[in-house]
């Protein structure tokens, strides 16, 4: 008689590594995703539309927006708890985790870490509740991996700033109430808190995407936007500001990708047990079992890596190159798992009846954004050799 199948991460006794509180918080997010995201997300992906404001309020009530930040109505959880939440959110869809990451780890984190008391009090409580949505303007059409070359600029005009330029591939751009925008100034790169109802602010939705369709992606255009002097983030100058925000977001991604991979693998295992060819389940064939075993190993190793990095982060010991290790490995292996699982489902693997092709398409973007696979490879290479090979 066959034994009862195990879930892939049971092989690694992952729950044994988590505190009771961490398991409880993870389970709350998992229950929300199972009830509110998974039944609807295929339709959002197919239509390319998402009820983002409704979801933001739900996610705010759930307590995951800026959950790892202290004060200003933020939950103040551990880094590991935040990572586990990202894992469950991305098991639903990368677009949902992106909404949370951009809100909490980019826009809110920038204001929390570098903003004035007035900026924090004005925006953070509303953003934690989901009643105000933020976006993060760093990437430009011609400057992705090299943000130091950005053309967006802010020039002094008396006590005010005049902001001009554009940003590309901005999650939440068309629904945002506030944008954290990075621009060249006479004093180097500085961040600005820009209400999106400012005259001269335009957001253009990006359509015809084949990935992250359950996510709002935009181009931002700034035309002579007049900002008060108080709009500038006072706490940081140079690329240190946006890069530290990106490390916060990458940390969530190295957990989140394992959630997408887990959902793909669990789907493939269930399908292979039920699907029969030549009068027996395809799970009974050695080639299929080898594929499942190999994927389970990579999923488990990636999850253990994420947890280890989370513990380091909670102890304030983590280094940027270690986050690159996690993002490089986990985004790559999650995409490989999704592709292999798609093959196990055969023709059914390309339909939205199953989540795998959706995860696979999404992971193509995750593999690239928040630092491309190539850039993180070079970060690791520099750490190993002491030689920067970016140019």
Question: Can I get a quick summary?
Answer:
With 391 residues, this protein is an alpha+beta fold. Helix content is 51%, strand content 15%. 49% of the residues are buried.
How would you describe this protein?
With 391 residues, the chain is of the alpha+beta class. The protein has three domains: 8-129, Acyl-CoA dehydrogenase/oxidase, N-terminal domain (Butyryl-Coa Dehydrogenase, subunit A, domain 1); 134-231, Butyryl-CoA Dehydrogenase, subunit A, domain 2, CATH 2.40.110; 240-385, Butyryl-CoA Dehydrogenase, subunit A, domain 3 (Up-down Bundle). It is 51% helix and 15% strand. It is built from ten helices and nine strands. It has helices spanning 20-47, 52-62, 79-92, 94-114, 117-129, 240-274, 286-314, 320-344, 356-366, 373-385; strands spanning 134-137, 153-157, 160-171, 178-185, 188-195, 201-205, 217-227, 276-277, 280-281. The strands form three sheets. Strands 2-3-7-6 form a four-stranded antiparallel beta sheet, with helices on one face. It has a three-stranded mixed beta sheet with strand order 1-4-5. Helix 1 (20-47) packs parallel to helix 3, helix 7 runs antiparallel to helix 8 and helix 8 packs across helix 10 (373-385). The longest helix has 35 residues, at 240-274. It is globular.
């Amino acid at each position: 008689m066959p034994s009862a199948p195990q879930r892939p991460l049971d092989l690694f006794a992952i729950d044994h590594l988590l505190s009771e509180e961490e398991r409880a918080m993870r389970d709350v997010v998992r229950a929300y995703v199972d009830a509110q995201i998974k039944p609807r997300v295929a339709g959002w992906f197919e239509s390319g539309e998402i009820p983002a404001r409704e979801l933001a309020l739900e996610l705010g009530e759930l307590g995951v927006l800026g959950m790892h930040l202290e004060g200003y109505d933020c939950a103040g959880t551990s880094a590991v708890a935040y990572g586990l939440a990202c894992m469950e959110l991305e098991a639903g869809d990368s677009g949902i985790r992106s909404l949370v990451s951009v809100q909490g780890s980019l826009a809110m984190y920038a204001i929390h870490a570098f903003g004035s008391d007035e900026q924090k009090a004005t925006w953070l409580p509303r953003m934690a509740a989901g009643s105000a949505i933020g976006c993060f303007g760093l990437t430009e059409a011609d400057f992705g991996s090299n943000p130091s070359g950005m053309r967006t600029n802010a020039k002094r005009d008396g006590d005010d700033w005049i902001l001009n330029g554009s940003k590309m591939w901005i999650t939440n751009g068309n629904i945002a109430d506030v944008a954290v925008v990075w621009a060249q100034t006479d004093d180097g790169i500085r961040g600005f808190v820009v209400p999106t109802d400012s005259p001269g602010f335009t957001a253009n939705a990006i359509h015809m995407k084949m990935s992250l369709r359950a996510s709002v992606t935009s181009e931002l255009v700034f035309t002579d936007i007049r900002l008060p002097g108080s709009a500038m983030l006072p706490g940081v100058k140079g690329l240190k500001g946006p890069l530290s925000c990106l490390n916060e977001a990458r940390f969530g991604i190295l957990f989140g990708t394992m959630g997408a991979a887990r959902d793909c693998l669990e789907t493939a295992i269930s399908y292979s047990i039920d699907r029969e060819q030549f009068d027996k389940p395809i799970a009974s064939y050695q080639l299929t079992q080898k594929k499942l075993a190999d994927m389970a190993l990579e999923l488990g190793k990636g999850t253990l890596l994420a947890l280890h990095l989370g513990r380091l982060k909670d102890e304030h010991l983590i280094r940027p190159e270690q986050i690159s290790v996690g993002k490089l490995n986990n985004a790559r292996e999650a995409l490989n798992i999704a592709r292999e699982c798609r093959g196990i489902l055969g023709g059914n693997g390309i339909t939205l009846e199953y989540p795998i092709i959706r995860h696979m398409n999404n992971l193509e973007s995750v593999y690239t954004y928040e630092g491309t696979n190539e850039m993180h490879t070079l970060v690791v290479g520099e750490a190993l050799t002491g030689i920067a090979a970016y140019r």
